[in-house]
Amino acid sequence: MERFRISELSKEFDVSTRSIRFYEDQGLISPRREGQTRWFSLKDKVRLKLIIRGKRLGFSLAEIRELFDLYDHHESQQQLEAMVSIIDKKRQELELKRRDIDIVMAELDAAKARCMDALAE
User: Which of 41, 80, 87, 99 has the most CB atoms less than 10 A away?
Assistant: First the structure.
């Protein structure tokens, strides 16, 4: 069985050990303890990766927890429908952000071009 120390995961994912302990306190990951040492399983490692990715994409910890809960108990039609709804909502939010980013990038490009033109004069 593969297992990982908190320091290994911290380095691999470039996240503080404090953040990892916070995710543990929130019940998102569940390492085994041997004395003072936390041993994280492969499942914990995958979940940590998903938490970090989800946070980067704008998911709240509550949304991440709900997705984990739905995944862990994936047999129910209602749970699957809820998961699809969450995913659709998040996709809509990300599409809006993408459009906003595209607009800002175009404005930055135009501002840079004006600056370059002014410097060339």
Answer: 41
